[in-house]
Amino acid sequence: MRAKEMDKISHILCGNKVDLVDEREVSMEEGLQLANSWECGYFEVSVKNKVNVEESVESVVRKVHQEVCSVFKGKNAYDRKKGGCITL
């Protein structure tokens, strides 16, 4: 994919270690406000307790897939002359 065809980078903001409630430094509201200003999703995650880890990754993959599909809409994803294939 050419950079000029994709003007945005898919990203999310994750508040990590939500299992450590007593040590919280950023409120959920602050995280949401920052994510809104960055125009991205927000997830509160805990790798230790497996909270929202898969959901956050799946969110980015879905967003990338949507953006790739919009770039290649009406085009053949595999061009024999140039080679290459897109699979998500």
UniProtKB/TrEMBL annotation:
Its EC number is 3.6.5.2. It catalyses: GTP + H2O = GDP + phosphate + H(+). Keywords: Hydrolase. Gene3D superfamilies: P-loop containing nucleotide triphosphate hydrolases. InterPro entries: P-loop_NTPase, Ras-related_GTPase, Small_GTPase. One of its GO terms (molecular function) is GTP binding. It is an enzyme of class 3 (hydrolase). Coiled coil: none annotated. PANTHER family: RAS-LIKE FAMILY MEMBER 11. Belongs to the small GTPase superfamily. Ras family. This is small monomeric GTPase.
